Amino acid sequence: MPRKTYEDPKGIGPGMSYEELVRRFGPPSFGVTTDRGTQTFTYLGRDGGVDLELQDGKVLKVVKPQEIVVVAPK
Hints:
mainly beta; 1 helix
């Protein structure tokens, strides 16, 4: 059976449902549910992780990795 290929998690945006996340990006790499019903998930991609905050099964907030540029002195 061929392995399912998922989209890059950088394409995750606010308003997406949990069902759409799993269908398009696969299951999250890590997740935590708080006592207030808020869920925090992490998806690992080729260029690092994407952290999500969900409320009532919808993405509220997406924190994508920032690029860091290192310039070496000459």
